[in-house]
Design brief:
Blueprint: H1 2-6, E1 9-15, E2 22-29, H2 30-38, E3 43-48, E4 58-64, E5 70-77, H3 83-86
Antiparallel strand pairs: 1-2, 2-5, 3-4, 4-5
């Protein structure tokens, strides 16, 4: 999370109250947010299933410009794929 802060990402996270383990980590760069605000019409959300070293689903949110170019908007590690985790 220190690297994300150094690179000027906006971070939201939650931890387990008992074990103090990370449960959810959402991060977005302010430049990606600016691009998304210019092209808000199409969002693609995809998740990989526990293929990373943290054994957590990894979510990528991608947008599409008016010239059909894709750009990354945000990323998240989530504890599970329940609706609360996505909110």
């Amino acid at each position: 999370m220190g690297i994300l802060n150094d690179k000027k990402f906006v971070i939201e996270f939650s931890v387990n109250n008992i074990s103090n383990e990370l449960e959810n980590l959402f991060f977005i760069h302010h430049l990606s947010l600016d691009i998304w605000q210019a092209f808000p019409h199409i969002l693609i959300i995809d998740a990989t299933y526990k293929t990373n070293k943290y054994a957590m689903p990894f979510v990528e949110i991608v947008g599409v410009t008016s010239t059909n170019k894709t750009f990354s908007i945000a990323f998240a590690f989530i504890i599970n794929e329940k609706e609360e985790s996505y909110k």
